[in-house]
Amino acid sequence: MDVFQYLSNPFEGDFVTLAAELAAMQYLTFCKRARRVGASVGQPEDALLDTVIEQLTQRAPSATYWTPEVGTIFTGIRQEPSAEVYAWLRAQIALSALATGVLEQVSLELDSQAPLLFAGRTFPATRLHIEGSAAQLEVTAADSDAAWSFSLAGQREGAPLWADDAGPGVFLELEGAPAVRFVGGDWHAAWGEEPCAAVVASENQRAQFSAALALLQRTMPHYFRWVTALLKEITPMQRPGEHMIASNSSALRLGGVDIATPASTTETVEMLIHECSHQYFHMASWLGTTVTPDARPHYSPLKRRERPLERILLGYHAFGNALIAFGRLVELGMDRDIDERRRTVVAYMDELKLPLADEDGISELGLALYRPLRARLAPQNSAELPAYPTTELPAAP
After folding, report:
1. What is the per-residue DSSP string for 257-306?
2. Packing angle between helix 265-285 and helix 309-331, nearest 10 degrees?
3. Integer Cα distance of 25 and 125 in angstroms
C-alpha cells in the first residue's frame, strides 16, 4: 500500500505517473465489466468493445482517461443487466473512446434508455444517431429536430480536446493552449445528487481561474501539478453568499468539479486544491474502501450532523491539503487575503481530526492517504500552519 501514499498529498512521490496508471486501469476495468454485461444478455461477441479494450491494453497509461465520459460508464454497469442497458453502455464507451482519442471513428444508432454524455453535454433518452470522426461529432435525435455537434479544439497530452459547437467555447489554458473545458449543469441534471446553480462561463470565469493557476504555478508548483494532472472540466456555479464559498465533486464525475464564482484568487486556489484532492481520494476509493466494515459514523462540522467515517476522512484529506497551501501563502505575506478562510478551515480540521486520531475504523488504504498528510500537518494547532514542504517535483506527463 506504500505507493498509494502518493495520493495523500503532492509531496510523497510521483503521483503523476501513479494517477496515469490508475486512470488507465479504471477505464479498462469499466470496459471489461461492460463486456461481461454483454455476455450475460446474450451478446458474447462485440467488435467495438473488443477494439477499445485492445487499444487500452496497448497504449501507454494516461491521465487523459480520467474524464466524466469514462466515469459515466459506471452508471450503466451498476444497473440490472439487459439488452437496453448494454446498448447504452456500448454507446457511452464509444463516446468516451472518441473523447479520449482511443477511437477515431464512431457510427451508432440506438434507442438510448438513459442520457449519454460527451464534452459536458448530455443527449436525452431517445433514438439517437451518432456519427463521429477524429475531428467532428454529430448527434441527432430521430423523433425531433434536436441535434448536437462538436469540433476538435486542440490537443492535451496527446488526446483530443473537444468543444461544443453550441456552447460558449470558453477554456482554461495551460502553457498557452486550451486545456480545461468550462461546462454547464447537464451532468448534474442527469446524475447529480442535487441541483447545481451553474453559471454560463465567460471571460470573467476564465480570468478568475487563470489567476489562481498562475499563482499556483509561480509559488506552489507541486499543487499546480496536483490540480492540473486530473482536472478536465469546471462547472462555474453561483457563489452562495458574500462571506461563503462552495465547491463540489463526485466520485462518478472523473475530472469534473464545481467551483463558486465570483471568488478571489486565493479562494479559487483553495477550492481547486480542495476539489482536486477529492479527485485523488476518489481515485483511491475505486480500488477499495478507505474504512473498515465496522467503522462508525462521526459528527461532521461541515454538515453539522453525523456522517460516515469515509466522508470524515475525505474532508480531512481535502482541507488538510488546503492548510498546507495556506502555509505557503502566509510565507508569501498573503496573511490578510486568507485570514477568514484560514480560521474557518482550521476550525473544521480541529473537529475532523478527532475521530481519526486513534485510526479506529480506517482501512490500510485509508491509512495510506491519512498518515502522510497527518505527518505533514503535525504539530498543528489553531495558532499555526504547516511549513510548506520542499521535495522533488514529479515530472510532467
Report:
1. EEEEES--HHHHHHHHHHHHHHHHHHHHHTTS-SB-TTPPPEEETTTTEE
2. 140
3. 29
- Closest by alpha carbon to 361, among 301, 307, 322? 307
Give CA angle at 306 (301, 307), nearest 5°: 90
Per-residue pLDDT tens digits of the chain, which is 397 residues long? 799 999 999 999 999 999 999 999 999 999 999 999 999 999 999 999 999 999 999 999 999 999 999 999 999 999 999 999 999 999 999 999 999 999 999 999 999 999 999 999 999 999 999 999 999 999 999 988 899 999 999 999 999 999 999 988 899 999 999 999 999 999 999 999 888 999 999 999 999 999 999 999 999 999 999 999 999 999 999 999 998 999 999 999 999 999 999 999 999 999 999 999 999 999 999 999 999 999 999 878 777 778 899 999 999 999 999 999 999 999 999 999 999 999 999 999 999 999 999 999 999 999 999 999 999 997 655 556 888 888 778 877 7
DSSP E strands: which ranges in 305-396?
Answer: 305-307
Please give the radius of gyration of the chain, using alpha carbons only, rounded to the nearest integer.
21
DSSP 129-189: EEEEESSEEEEEETTSS-EEEEEEEEEETTEEEEEETTS---EEEETTEEEEEE--SHHHH
User: What is this structure's pTM?
Assistant: 0.96
Residues with Cβ within 8 Å of 339's Cβ and at least 6 positions away in sequence, in order, are: none
Q: Tell me the C-alpha distance between 362 and 360, whole Å.
A: 6
Please answer whether residues 68 and 121 qualify as being in contact, where contact means their C-beta atoms are separated by less than 8 angstroms.
no
Q: Which residue has the cell 510521483?
A: 14
User: What CA–CA distance (Å, rounded) separates 180 from 174?
Assistant: 8
**Angle, helices 203-219/265-285, rounded to nearest 10 degrees:** 80
Within 73-124, residue ranges assigned H as helices are 73-77, 83-100
Run of H or E residues at 154: strand 147-156
Per the CB < 8 A criterion, the answer to whether 204 and 194 are in contact is: no
* Residue 84 near residue 112, CB atoms below 8 Å: no
Amino acid identity for residue 180 in this structure: V
> Which residues, including other chains, have CB under 8 Å from residue 244's CB and lie 6 or more apart?
none
Q: What cell numbers appear for 214 in the block?
A: 498562475
The total number of residues written for the chain in this structure: 397
Distance CA 177, CA 160 (A): 12
Question: What is the enclosing helix (H) or strand (E) of 374?
Answer: helix 364-377
